[in-house]
Amino acid sequence: MNTKPLVLIVGKLSKTLKKAIEDNYQTLYLPEEPTEQQAFLKTNSQSITTVATSAAHGMTAELMAALPNLKLVASLGVGYDSLDVQYAKTHGICVTNTPDVLNDCVADLAMGLMIDVARNISYADRFIRDGLWQDRSAKLGRKVSHKTCGIVGLGRIGKAIAKRAEAFDMNIAYYGRHQQTDVNYDFYDDLNKLAITSDFLVLALPATGDTTHIINEQILNDLGEKGFLINIARGAVVDENALVKALKEGKIAGAGLDVFEHEPNTPKELWEMDNVVLTNHIGSATYETREAMAELVFANIQSFLAGKGAITPVV
Length: 315
Ligand code: NAP
What we know:
NAD binding, NADP, NAD(P)-bd_dom_sf, D-isomer_2-hydroxyacid_DH, 5-stranded parallel sheet, Rossmann fold, glyoxylate reductase (NADPH) activity, 315 residues, alpha/beta
């Protein structure tokens, strides 16, 4: 009889992570097709205590409820808006994420988007490839160094962005629910005031009920026609219709966006805009960081199943 603990994989995970789980535990995969899934749950639901999944896939309360002995949901990614953490909390299920190991890469991307959109890097690349250099002169951009970088949500990733922005001699200001005690940056308890003062408003806060559409028409107006919006957080924190409208009407200078309200769909209007840089949710998407994230998912499972508790629990 196989005495190894059982781990259920929900959604897509990397080959390395699947192999680490398969090598150490009995492994089951949740079928995607609804009828197959129902049959699978009928047979296996009682024996499953541990799930490995990702923030990209998430896990609903309905699925957690279908697994009556569930004790751990180990998720790849730092955001947990796609996981029903409230349900888990009230049903004694531990949820883990992968904080810190992705700070550098997400912060690097935020700086990349900031510089790209302000200095027209992607635009210039298209300009050359479209054979336009012969006929036209360069489009002027906006200076990044010495400008004000306003960070919304100065947590782990926000602080990594601030550190990089400091190297560009930027003034750093931030908004959050609390003033941070370990930094000297200018704290704003009023998001409108931060938007008014910022040249670059960089979003690095979680998507929660409280933060849905925290960036609305008024905030974009406050950011103003010389201001850029950079979003590496979650699409839900921005009212995307208001953003498209603000860009169309020249209310803000431009935007660098890694995340969107209805991924993988992105507003077609943005595709036509040269003052917008779009990336497909690639904040943590490097070999090194994805490997570190996978290792942390596995370490959480290992520690929890060995009775030592989770390493990075979110509840
Ligand atoms: P974190 O360390 O928990 O920091 C989050 C920050 O947001 C905290 O400073 C918190 O400060 C602030 N915050 C929380 N609720 C807020 C609210 N209602 N209003 C204003 N500020 C609020 O998280 P992190 O590791 O830096 O990650 C931040 C987010 O980045 C994640 O939740 C995830 O959605 C996103 N992310 C995106 C990618 C990507 O691929 N693009 C990758 C990783 C993470 P206060 O408590 O003081 O408010």
